[in-house]
Amino acid sequence: MVLVNFRTSRCAPCRAPMSSLDRLRRQVDGRPFRDVAVNLDQRRADIEAFFGSLTVKPTFEALPDRDERTPRSGPVHGLPTTLVIDPDGRASHASHRARRQDGAEVRDLVDALRQPAQPDRT
C-alpha cells in the first residue's frame, strides 16, 4: 500500500498535511505501507527549501515531477491531493484538500486495505 501526496512548494495549503503524513508513517511503522510526496516543482532547490522550512522534518521520500505529468494522468484535481493506492494498484481513497492525514478515518482505511481479501463464499 502506498500513500501519495501531490503538492508544490508554491501552494500554501500544501504545508498543512506534511506533519500529519509523518505521524501517520510512524503510526503504521513496521507494516506494509509506504508514503511518498510528489512535488510539482520546477526546481529541486524549491523542494529542498520547502522541506527545510518545516518544523518537523518528514521521513518520507519526496520525488520531483518537473513536467507536471502525474496530475494529468490520474485523479488529481487540485493541490494538495492525497491518494491511497491499494495493494492491487488502485486509487482507493482521495483527499483533495489540506487536511490531517493521521486521523482515524485515514488510519482505519490503511488498516482495512492491508488486510488480505476474504474469499467470496457464494
Textual characterization of the structure:
By secondary structure, the chain is of the alpha/beta class. 26% of the residues lie in helices and 21% in strands. It has three helices and five strands, in the order βαβαβββα. The protein is globular, with a radius of gyration of 15 Å. The model has no long low-confidence stretch (mean pLDDT 76).
Short descriptors:
Glutaredoxin; single chain; 3 helices; 122 residues; five-stranded mixed sheet; alpha/beta
What topology emerges from the helices and strands here?
Layout: E1 2-7, H1 16-27, E2 34-39, H2 44-52, E3 61-64, E4 81-85, E5 91-95, H3 104-114
Parallel strand pairs: 1-2, 2-3
Antiparallel strand pairs: 1-4, 4-5
